[in-house]
TrEMBL record:
It comes from Odocoileus virginianus. Signal peptide: none annotated. Residues 1-29, 524-605 are annotated as: Disordered. This is Protein unc-93 homolog B1. It comes from the Eukaryota. The chain crosses the membrane at residues 60-81, 111-130, 137-155, 161-183, 216-243, 285-311, 343-363, 375-398, 405-423, 429-448, 469-489, 495-514. InterPro entries: UNC93B1. The gene is UNC93B1.
């Protein structure tokens, strides 16, 4: 009886093709071991390394796009909801029908106070929070607080709106400081992944040449601010597709308005107290707020799922290990650096000009003359002009460094001087094209301002140990400027323009003075960053005590808190075998009984 053929070919058995496979390697027991377990014969190490770093560079681009889109959606939802909320609450009929005598104007004033006043204290806690949570998780947490603010508008009461506004005010500076730090770190990582061969030749401890990441930083900041300025257009979508259908036209809302533009005072003096023709249904409001909530949640997912870490785990440990007291003090110590002192006027002007575009230009010149129903289109023009012009920041690749920043300041200077002498008439549409042109040009200046300052900070301060401090100082001064605008909202338009003009001239002059000092070779005085306070043992970062020991090891080492008999289980080595002083930590620690007796354990006997 013949044996059945095996279901699978037996190793070493000669098949129909003989004892060798397609590659000519002998099969079976006589096959060489290196051919079986060795490297793939066609493996190209250089090609695989190139592909690896190409994937790393694509990951950096993904991080930049995800962070930019997350910031755009977050800020767009916040601005859109706040704008729609303030317009609805301004209408007398809406307040009386929906909320009765609940005191909605008082709630709105306290809510705006929470948003504008709370960031003044941000310099005290922002660096600590960024170092504690890490850059990526600080971004995620801050975006989540913005989403919390959106969610509280489902139930508009004092105990929901005001606390969420205070929490939002606390998150403003940490969010944008961590965003600026994140984009700068991505540019540095992209340089490392693009020049990995040079890094291998120089060694892991050698830092790249100063300014080497600047071209990538210019590109990434242009991408980020293109997305960021689109948030102003995204914020107008609820206005355009929902609220505009309920608004009165300009003949009703502007009936008592007498002066606009440079002759106006405060915010829309004489504006009609009723702006809604019909009240929106509560169901429609819930639908709009649900869409905004979904977009805020999408921004959280973008930051959580698509943004990679800004630092390696060991770098995160190093950044935290300089000591929390030092982390708290370092933002204040950076005031010694003359570069930061010279840039402070530009930081303040950066906050002034954004608020002027949204309030002074859009309300004092736009709504005051062409009506509330065209507010959204004015801000869309500003947004698109700023977003498209963010690419002008790339001129820094070919032109001297001061040119884009000074060009934006010069454009704003011309526009501010023009607005000084322009007072459009209320309820006239003949000059609406001028308003759109001014809005677009102001957006061009804003784009050059924002991209120029952020790129300049990333170039001047390349050390990863101090970037979060620098961006915290920048955005804190912006918050101080926004708080100042909030306090002076009732001033005449001429006073606002004067403050804007003086700050602009002072910031440009101070910046050019700083560049002149750097060309003369004046060395800035930077505070020393303390060394990390940990000990390196192998691949772990440990303190004096072994933080990795288990409970059982701790009980054996500390004698479990027992008596002297418990501690005598481990005998000390004979005196003859101890030629000199023994190193600290080689033997066990004294148990509590020995500590109470003042001894150091059996080794002392």
């Amino acid at each position: 009886m013949e044996a059945e053929p095996p279901l699978y070919p037996v190793a070493g058995a000669a098949g129909p093709q003989g004892a060798e496979d397609r590659l000519g390697v002998p099969d079976g027991p006589e096959a060489p071991l290196d051919e079986l377990v060795g490297a793939y014969p066609n493996y190209n190490e250089e090609e695989e390394e190139r592909r690896y770093y190409r994937r790393k560079r694509l990951g950096v681009l993904k991080n930049v796009l995800a962070a930019s889109a997350g910031g755009m959606l977050t800020y767009g939802v916040y601005l859109g909801l706040l704008q729609m909320q303030l317009i609805l609450h301004y209408d007398e009929t809406y307040r009386e029908v929906k909320y009765g005598n609940m005191g909605l104007p008082d709630i709105d004033s306290k809510m705006l106070m929470g948003i504008n006043v709370t960031p003044i204290a941000a310099l005290l806690y922002t660096p600590v929070l960024i170092r504690f949570f890490g850059t990526k998780w600080m971004m995620f947490l801050a975006v989540g607080i913005y989403a919390l603010f959106v969610s509280t508008n489902y139930w508009e009461r004092y105990y929901t709106l005001v606390p969420s506004a205070v929490a939002l005010g606390m998150a403003i500076v940490p969010l944008w400081a961590s965003m600026g730090n994140y984009i700068t770190r991505m540019a540095q990582k992209y340089y490392e992944y693009s020049h990995y061969k040079e890094q291998d030749e120089q060694g892991p401890q050698q830092r790249p040449p100063r300014g080497s990441h600047a071209p990538y930083l210019l590109v990434f900041q242009a991408i980020f601010y293109s997305f960021f300025h689109l948030s102003f257009a995204c914020a107008q979508l609820p206005m355009i597709y929902f609220l505009n259908h309920y608004l009165y036209d300009l003949n009703h809302t502007l009936y008592n308005v007498q002066n606009c533009g440079t002759n106006s005072q405060g915010i829309l003096l004489g504006f009609n107290k009723t702006v809604l023709r019909t009240l929106p249904r509560s169901r429609n409001l819930i639908v709009v707020e649900s869409v905004l909530m979904a977009v805020a949640f999408l921004a959280m997912l973008l930051v959580l799922g698509l943004c990679g870490a800004a630092y390696r785990p060991t770098e995160e440990i190093d950044l935290r290990s300089v000591g929390w007291g030092n982390i708290f003090q370092l933002p204040f110590k950076h005031v010694r650096d003359f570069r930061l002192r010279h840039l402070v006027p530009f930081f303040i002007y950066s906050g002034f000009e954004v608020l002027f575009a949204c309030t002074g230009l859009a309300l004092g010149y736009g709504v005051c003359s062409v009506g509330l129903e065209r507010l959204a289109y004015l801000l869309v023009a500003y947004s698109l002009g700023a977003s498209a012009s963010s690419a002008l920041g790339l001129l820094g690749l070919w032109l001297p460094r001061p040119v884009p920043l000074v060009a934006g300041a010069g454009l704003h200077l011309l526009l501010t001087l023009s607005l000084f002498f322009w007072a459009p008439k209320p309820r006239t549409l003949q000059h609406i094209w001028i308003l759109y042109a001014v809005a677009v040009l102001w957006g061009v200046g804003s784009a050059l301002n924002k991209t120029g300052i952020s790129t300049l900070l990333g170039i001047l301060y390349e050390d990863k140990e101090r970037q979060d401090f620098i961006f915290t100082i920048y955005h804190w001064w912006q918050a101080v400027a926004i708080f100042t605008v909030y306090l002076g909202s009732s001033l005449p338009m001429k006073a606002k323009l004067t403050v804007l003009l003086v700050t602009l001239v002072a910031s440009a002059a101070s910046y050019l003075w700083m560049e002149q000092k750097l060309r003369r070779g004046v060395v800035p005085r930077q505070p020393r960053i303390p060394r990390p306070q940990h000990k390196v043992r192998g691949y772990r970062y440990l303190e004096e005590d072994n933080s990795d020991e288990s409970d059982a090891e701790g009980e054996r080492g500390g004698c479990g808190g027992g008596g002297r008999g418990d501690c005598a289980e481990e005998e000390a080595p004979p005196a003859g075998l101890r030629p000199g002083p023994e190193p600290a930590g080689l033997y066990r620690r004294p148990c509590p009984y020995e500590q109470a007796q003042g001894g150091d354990g059996p080794e002392e006997q």
